[in-house]
Amino acid sequence: MNIRKGVICDLTSIINIEKAVYNKPYWNVAMLKKLFIDSVIETVWVIENQKKIIGFLIEQRCDNEINLLNVAIDRPFQNKGIGKKLINHYLDLISGNCSVFLEVNKTNIIARKIYADLNFKNIGMRKNYYNDGCDALLMKYTK
Ligand SMILES: CC(C)(COP(=O)(O)OP(=O)(O)OC[C@H]1O[C@@H](n2cnc3c(N)ncnc32)[C@H](O)[C@@H]1OP(=O)(O)O)[C@@H](O)C(=O)NCCC(=O)NCCS
Fold first, then answer.
1. d(CA 41, ligand 1 centre) in Å
2. How do residues 100-128 score in pLDDT, each as one tens digit?
3. Which DSSP symbol is given to 39?
4. Domains of the chain
């Protein structure tokens, strides 16, 4: 398996995963296109299996502060340790003085387990954060 920075040619694979894993996908083609073409603070990382993209992570970085905007693993590859591997590898890549923040749906037990295992700490909650009315937990990782 290979982890690398995503490029605009990866857009279709990324959007297909976004659509497959979320009931109400947030990212669409226009948003991702804009990210790849215009954004200097956002980066997509992809994980490949035999040259096929099977997951991705989107970061937003301002100096030493990083927000993880999205992490997703394609359905057939879920629950095989790949999501944890991608996030862990990403945390290895970032420099030593960074803090990483994210929001995770309180009901997303699997994602919460991964973040807790990788030493993200709960630092707050955003009530009714998601469009289904669910709360978000705010988590922080300090390297
Ligand atoms: C969240 C997501 C990225 C995790 O990726 P993944 O590759 O499936 O996860 P992993 O296999 O690396 O790890 C899953 C962990 O949850 C555990 N787990 C699986 N089902 C579980 C359950 N029902 N209850 C508790 N733990 C569970 C697994 O045992 C594993 O823990 P382990 O490392 O101790 O064995 C993936 O499920 C996904 O894309 N979900 C949809 C998008 C999403 O919710 N993204 C997160 C946004 S914050």
1. 27
2. 999 999 999 999 999 999 999 999 999 99
3. -
4. 2-142 (3.40.630.30)
pTM greater than the 0.90 cutoff: yes
Decide if 103 is catalytic. yes
17-63 confidence digits (pLDDT tens): 999 999 989 999 999 999 999 999 999 999 999 999 999 999 999 99
- Which two three-digit tokens encode residue 62? 């301002």
Catalytic residue among 65, 103, 130, 141: 103
Buried b / exposed e over 3-29, threshold 16 CB at 10 Å, is beebeeebbebbbebbeebeeeeebee
